[in-house]
Amino acid sequence: MIKRLYQWTLSLAEHPHALWALFLVAFVESSFFPIPPDILMIPMIIARPQRAWLIASVALFASVLGGLLGYAIGALAFETLGQPILSSLGKADAMAEFSERFNDLGFWAVLTAGVTPFPYKVITIMSGWTGMPLATFIVTSILARGLRFFIVAGLLWQFGAPIRDFIERRLGLMFTLAVALLLAGFFAVRYL
C-alpha cells in the first residue's frame, strides 16, 4: 500500500496544479500522512529550477500549518486521534517515557524531527500532547522545515538532476549527523 501511495504522490509532481498538490502533501505529512513532501519537491524543482524557492516556500508554509494541526491533535484529541496515529507509526511504546523528557528537549526535538528523516508528525502531535509552548513550537518548526526544504531546493537549483540520488539517499543522514554534531558541541561546551 505504501508503494502505491508513494507512486501516487510522485505522480502529482506532473499535475498542472502541482503546487497545490505539494501544499496538500506538506500539510498532511506534518500531522498524519506517511509520505514526505520531498517526493514531490524534487521532480518539481528538477523540471522547473527557476521555481525552486517558490516550491520550497510552499512546502515550508504548508508544513508549518500542518504542524499546527498535528499540535492541535496532540493537545485536543490525543486519545482519539493522536495515539492511533503514533501507534500506526510504531511509536506508541516510547510515548509515555519520551513525554516525561519531551518539553525539556522541546526545541531540539522539533528541530531534529524537522530536518532529519524522523517522522515530523510524531513531534507535532507530541508537542501538543505535552503542552510545549506554542511559540517555541512554531519558531522551531519554521527554522527546521525551512532548513530542510531550502537546502533541498538550493542543491537542486545549483546542481539539478545529478544531485537527486544524493538527496534521496543521503541527505537525511547528513542532516542527522549535523544535528548530532551540533548537540555534541553544545554538550561539550556545557559540561566540559
UniProtKB/TrEMBL annotation:
Pfam families with a match to the protein in the record: VTT_dom
Keywords (A to Z) from UniProt: Membrane, Transmembrane, Transmembrane helix
Transmembrane spans: 20-40, 52-78, 105-123, 135-159, 171-189
Domain VTT positions: 36-155
Superkingdom of source: Bacteria
Record carries keyword Membrane: yes
InterPro entries linked: DedA_domain, VTT_dom
GO cellular component: plasma membrane
Protein's UniProt name: Cytochrome B561
